[in-house]
Amino acid sequence: MSETPHPRPQPPPEARLAQRLEAKETPRRSAIVNVLHELADLDAAAYRAIAETPMPTLDEPLRQLSELANNSKLWLAIAGGLFVLGGRTGRRAALTGAAAIAINSAIVNLPMKLAGRRERPDRGGIGVPKRRWVEMPTSTSFPSGHSASGFAFASAVAGTLPIAALPLRGLAAAIAYSRVHTGVHYPGDVVVGSLIGVTIGEATAMVARGIHRRRQRA
Q1: What is the pLDDT of residues 135-144, one digit of tens each?
Q2: Which of 150, 160, 162 has its CA nearest to residue 194?
Q3: Quick one: fold of 58-217?
Q4: Domain range annotation of the chain
């Protein structure tokens, strides 16, 4: 599996924000700049540490899990199962989860990735083992769309079907980590993507509950 070179690599979002703040430096801004630079260094160091840590038992399962989540296939399959087998509550949960994925895709995969402009990691240069590799996406790296869609779906479904919260969020976390393990995302991409997903999922669930209550009253 070959790597496609990316021209004009952009620094991480934390470093770009730090550069902007440095233009008008004050004591408070100086402290913020230092924290942002340290976060960027931590992000890169965590990526390198994961790449360099041998995990032969986990490499193949995480690679397959990461690929299974492409285009939200796994989440849509779960939604289909809930819709068919879950009764009335399962159908509401499935529709809410699917809506959260659609909203997440519109927000994260277009405007937020374009605004982030972060290049994908150089996993070959950093030394991510090739047995871990999945296809390197052509989109920008920040934030992680896989992480966002997973937590959006899990949070949205949990709002209707609380019993599903723990297994779905655990699965979303495993997929989010797999994106770093396979070398296609930095940890910071995954953390921010997960937080965005939780926000979208919970907001979608709140709207869905409101619609359901209005229908019940009617």
Answers
A1: 999 999 999 9
A2: 150
A3: Vanadium-containing Chloroperoxidase; domain 1 (1.20.144)
A4: 58-217
